[in-house]
Records
---
Amino acid sequence: MNIGLIGPGEIGSVIVRKLRDAGYSVKMANSKGPDSLRELAAKTGAIPVSIGQVVQNVDILFIVLPDKAIPELPEGLLNKAKKETIVIDVGNYYPFRDDRIDEIENGLTDSAWVEKQIGRPVIKVLNTIVSNALAEAGRPAGSRDRVALPISGDNPKAKEIVAQLLDRIGFDSVDAGTIAESWRQQPGSPVYCTNPTKEELQQWLKNLDRSSLITNKEKGTKAHFAVEQRDPRTGAVIKRTDYQVIKRTDYQTIVNTYRSVHKK
Ligand SMILES: NC(=O)c1ccc[n+]([C@@H]2O[C@H](COP(=O)([O-])OP(=O)(O)OC[C@H]3O[C@@H](n4cnc5c(N)ncnc54)[C@H](OP(=O)(O)O)[C@@H]3O)[C@@H](O)[C@H]2O)c1
């Protein structure tokens, strides 16, 4: 299976590594060009290409961008992809980073907005796990602590293929519904960044209340930043507020932080 990935940054580079470890053929692109990806290419064996090339002749295309970068993609980019290419959206909408997007604020799901921008249906997956958990929490099938990830999309066959891919990189999955319903796995949902087992994920997806999403998204983000701004070794407050501070803390601490937001 041939895979393309746009945006091998914080989580995209982990996806590249996991896919390569599982034996997939991967090419990748960013906005700075293939030369800027030489180090990641040497580490993983993924092939750096231009944005125009990354979408061509792939079975699956991962889009791993902050939402504000989506409209910056070259116009008509996805016309160069095969009709059958499964396009995956890993992104989340955060207004502090992406600026305000009125359509999302007015109720369109994050991924429905992405579909409108790129002119193609997407499968939403891998947006609910922090990068260091994705790097470290994969387990063999049947492990009691195997993490499960929600998959949303309008094409059941494509969701099955994505579920098989997740299984190969160490994760269970649960079909979470359509793209219109994919708010169920957006920030603020109890399934977001909480590393549920399959049983937990099935259970938690059943009792969701969309009206609590915004408040819980704010609480989760605040709690996450509070944890990230403490040096994990000394406990001292780190004076950086940059989003990229993330990932120095072990993933279980981050998971516990998100879980605590949803404790009754
Ligand atoms: N980090 C996580 O743990 C995590 C977990 C789940 C989901 N997510 C979501 O995944 C998305 C990416 O997050 P991240 O933390 O990985 O961000 P990041 O570290 O900032 O990486 C962003 C990537 O996108 C590329 N990029 C930015 N603008 C581009 C453009 N116009 N054209 C092509 N490539 C472009 C960047 O490369 P250049 O700078 O070279 O363009 C970089 O490779 C976000 O929506 C985030 O919410 C993140």
---
Amino acid sequence: MFSVKDLELEIWQRQALMALADQSSPWECCGFVMDNGVIIPIQNIEDELAIYRMHPGEQIQAMAYRMPWAVYHSHVSSRGYPSQTDKAMQRSDYHQIIVSLMEHSVRLFDPEWRIIKEWGSIS
Ligand SMILES: [Zn+2]
């Protein structure tokens, strides 16, 4: 069973995140992995590519359900490392997850953007 202390993502979560990234392409997908492991997609209200902005109301709804453990978003045509914008826009102490469609990878970071774990070649 998923636990916050695991600081990991199970294979079904990585596959689900990759599928969400695929569906939103060429826009980035974004959302939460909650403290019980449930993935809650949040609408990306940013028009521009290669950047994301989470729908405020949907964030509040998700937080009424459970506490987020991590924020995820996708990179469509760049590697799965935080951009300057990602670092500048972060305002939470949640873990961070970047799904890269280009690399077909998922990277899990702590709130200071240190890599905890990375998975490649996710189908
Ligand atoms: Zn990014």
---
Amino acid sequence: MTKLARILLNFLATIFFVSNKELFIRKNGLKLLKFVLLIYSYTPFKKNNIFFKIARSDKFEQYSDLYNLISVLISQDKKLNILEIGIGGHDKEFSGGNSILALKYMYKNSKIIGLDFENKKFLEDSRIKIFQGDQSKIDDLNNIVKQYDNFDIIIDDGSHFVNHQFASFEFLFKYLNDGGLYIIEDIQGSYVKSMNGDPELAYEKNLVTFFSHYTHCTNSRFIIKKLEKKFEKYSNFNKLFFVENAILIQKNSKNISKKYPEDELYLSLEEMNTKKKRIKDVSGVIKQNINNR
Ligand SMILES: C[S@@+](CC[C@H](N)C(=O)[O-])C[C@H]1O[C@@H](n2cnc3c(N)ncnc32)[C@H](O)[C@@H]1O
């Protein structure tokens, strides 16, 4: 909440003799925020990061580029299911929900589903559904997928413990729709022992090392049979972005490109030229239709 809004609400609470001023300020601050976000959502040149700025989510400082990028990767006007782990405010009553609200007005036709360790039910409305639970507990995640079994965007901004981030990803990725996005924020824990990460970058404790292993999956149509097993678990990765302190994964869309013929991968340039009926020289120039010459 901005200083000005707080001063205004404080003034109103005083003149109306409100007994719990702080609660009054938080509840009405939320209403005010929704109103401002709604107005902004009708402006013609709106940008995702500005929704986060208005909502005072720290995604504005850290991830402006990342969230502006996702507006290119997935349509904002469709009816989507968006799940965010970590609502904010920790155990403070009527606190948090900044990014959930920003997402609600950014994706006007979508359902926003939130999960937090603490009770954040105060945020619920016709398009926001809140679950209380632990992102590292499969039972709690199951509770969500019993009601919402497919998502278009999943954002992990919860505990930031690496084992939790792994547990949520391993369980939830299969519920991500084709073309859907999975974002893991605050991956700094991957480098820190106290967050169950590993400064020496071990595969099972460091998200960057883990996901780097699957970068070839974005080109899975070129992977030869012999190596398929190695990558099969996440052969449906379509895009993988590593940015400072976050990872974004996009799942393949329905129209997956056809497998590249394996025998062609081993042809020499001369053999390939014969097969393709063209001449490509070593400089890269292609002389086409050699049969017509
Ligand atoms: C960084 S805040 C989320 C901020 C919010 N996404 C935003 O951008 O405004 C992290 C939240 O994760 C919650 N959290 C911590 N551990 C969790 C866990 N194991 N499972 C689910 N939520 C957890 C905390 O209660 C806290 O509210």
